Amino acid sequence: MSEQDCLFCKIINGNAAADVVYQDNRCVVIRDINPQAPTHVLVIPREHIESLDDASQKDETLLGHLLRISARVANEHGLSDSGGYRAVINTGRGAGQSVFHLHVHVLGGREMTWPPG
Ligand code: 5GP
Ligand code: ZN
């Protein structure tokens, strides 16, 4: 998918609406439109990378940043104190990826089961 057609690029560029809970020069965090837990946010790099599978060595610092911000946002939503949270990167259609712009799901506020379906 090209960047022009990408939903998350549109949100990042201000061409589509979203509930933004955090942003910095490398990423934007929005509330998921179809939450799967009481707290469900998406940590999205500003750079268009289709999936984790397309990240390369030059993206290592960015990937670390996305995880650190995932933890920070989870903490700001009280998820560490309420039992923990899950950070998930669906990679590929068969694994549940539906938007092909890399993002980390941060879910919490309820009991989680394992294995994920
Ligand atoms: P994926 O399925 O690719 O792992 O995750 C994509 C996520 O984006 C889904 O959880 C879906 O609910 C969310 N999503 C899809 N369209 C929109 C939208 O227009 N706005 C927001 N905030 N989230 C969306
Ligand atoms: Zn994109």
For the record, the CATH class is Alpha Beta
Shape: globular
* Structural class by secondary-structure content: alpha+beta
Estimate nothing, just give the exact number of structural domains: 1
The main sheet comes to:
5 strands, antiparallel
Main sheet: strand order: 1-2-3-5-4
By CATH, the topology is HIT family, subunit A
Percentage of residues in strands: 15-25%
Note poorly predicted spans.
none
User: Fraction of residues in helices?
Assistant: 10-25%
Describe the secondary structure blueprint for this structure:
Elements: H1 7-12, E1 20-23, E2 27-31, E3 39-45, H2 60-76, E4 85-88, E5 104-108
Antiparallel strand pairs: 1-2, 2-3, 3-5, 4-5
Q: TL;DR of this structure?
A:
This protein has one domain: 2-Layer Sandwich (HIT family, subunit A). 20% of the residues lie in helices and 21% in strands. It contains 2 helices and 5 strands.
